[in-house]
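Throughout our pipeline, every protein is held as a single compact record rather than as scattered files. Such a record has a labelled line for the sequence and another for the backbone structure tokens. This encoding replaces a full spatial description with a residue-level series of whole-number codes. For reference, a complete record is included directly beneath this paragraph.
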Amino acid sequence: MPVLGLIRKPVDREMAEFEKYFSQTMRSNIPLLRIVLNYILRRKGKQMRPLLVLLSSKLHGEIGEPTYVAATLIELLHTTSLVHDDVVDDANERRGAISINALWSSKIAVLVGDYMLARGLLISVEKGRYDMLEIVSEAVKAMSEGELLQLQKSRKLNITEEEYFAIIRGKTAALTSACTACGAKAVTDDADIIQNMKEFGETIGIAFQIRDDVLDYEATGLTGKPSGNDIKEKKITLPLIHALENAGRGSRNEILSIIRSKRKTTSDIRKVVDFVYGLGGIDYAVETMNKYRDKALAILDNYPPGTANDSLREFVNYTTSRKK
């Protein structure tokens, strides 16, 4: 059984219930909207975020409708962000399928994303879960700020390590933090527990993003070459930041010149990758990622053993060892 299948085993039945609950929210009487929403439902991904919500609830109590509300709210927000990201990036594919903006139009994609976000807000209000709405609204704000800060820094290529962490706390960790906080909030009102789980989610999110950034430099696929997508998109991530900080002025300027270039050759990408490996950027990033992994596992040490605890531990380890 795949790793994610083992991780979700303690909440298999509840994940099936969530999927039914989520599908109910993705219904519309507008023919075009119904077609697009059905397309989104059919190409669902790994559903790691709803899984994280359910496991966080199970760690603290019994899963019921409040947990399904939380997981639905999170999944609607996440799906909205993906649809809007494809428009911003002018991407033609998402998870190996044609993107909404490519299949229909950017205007339709933006409007569908707005619709899903509104559905999430309405569900929260209808169920009286203003507490979850507050958590998720903070996440949306942080995600927007993180993306804008990254765009600003990619223009000048002057990002520091401190700024990098500010970006990924917003871009990625804010949503995983909302997952675990909402999951806990669904079954308890204990402020300390909710804050603890919020920190747990943020730690997972940071580790997840660092792993993503390292993967961009690792050889993958049939070609055995790194994707180099971050390099192509002028994204300065932790491995490159560390290498640049430890490079001489000449090689630093040469690498930054390549990053600035609009047209990068395969040789250019290879030069940047070799530069990062040569100056210990990958080793440093992996070491930093593992510190966050260990911090997340240490938080789980405060909970008694059980299937939810075991699965969350596997979730943390999967986050930092996945190959894609």
User: Anything to note?
Assistant: The chain is about 75% helix and 0% strand. The mean pLDDT is 89. Residues 159 and 236 are 7 Å apart (CA to CA). The chain has one domain: 3-321.
